[in-house]
Design a protein that fits this description.
alpha+beta; 7 strands; three-stranded antiparallel beta sheet; 3 helices; four-stranded antiparallel beta sheet
């Protein structure tokens, strides 16, 4: 994401922009979702082949088979492909991610409302920086320690700008 593609707020400036240099095929959540999807798909396939359902049971079984296959494999493939079209930007007030497989969607999180960034090192000097559920996560970025340090400083500065001015208790 270049600075020219970002809709900046008045007075906002870009501190860093980048994109994933490493796209993980599997993430931690896939350790639960992929096996569960595999079990669902196997059960649906068994039901189709052994019980030979008809009517509504057939439709329901096919739906369960599709959901299971998506959980087992499709979800990871879709994420991998979408990360190929993902860009990130950090401004002095927000962190922004623009991604999507077919239609680009933009998500933003206000820096002042974020906790300290958590860096999970990845292969080949890459890493993922997260903040918690419901916030923007930077997957597979290069120079992750430098970006984490930049984010930590930007978050501290954003919180300081929003803090109410302290009362001077010595002027009495």
């Amino acid at each position: 994401m270049s600075a020219g593609e970002i809709d900046l707020l008045p007075g906002e400036r870009v501190l860093w922009a980048g994109e994933p240099v490493q796209r993980p095929l599997y993430v931690a959540a896939d350790g639960v979702i992929a096996p569960a999807g595999l079990v669902l798909a196997a059960a649906a396939l068994w039901f189709l082949l052994v019980k030979e359902p008809t009517g509504a049971a057939l439709v329901a079984t096919v739906v369960v088979l599709v959901v299971g296959c998506y959980g087992a494999v499709g979800r990871s493939v879709v994420r991998y492909l979408a990360l190929g079209r993902t860009t990130y930007a950090v401004t002095d007030s927000r962190i922004i991610a623009r991604s999507g497989l077919f239609r680009q969607k933009e998500r933003a999180s206000e820096l002042a409302g974020l906790p300290a960034p958590v860096l999970k090192p990845g292969p080949s000097r890459t890493g993922t920086i997260g903040f918690g559920p419901g916030t923007v996560t930077l997957f597979g970025i290069g120079e992750p320690k430098r970006v984490r340090d930049l984010l930590t400083k930007a978050i501290d500065e954003a919180k300081a700008r929003q803090a109410p001015p302290e009362q001077d208790s010595s002027a009495a």
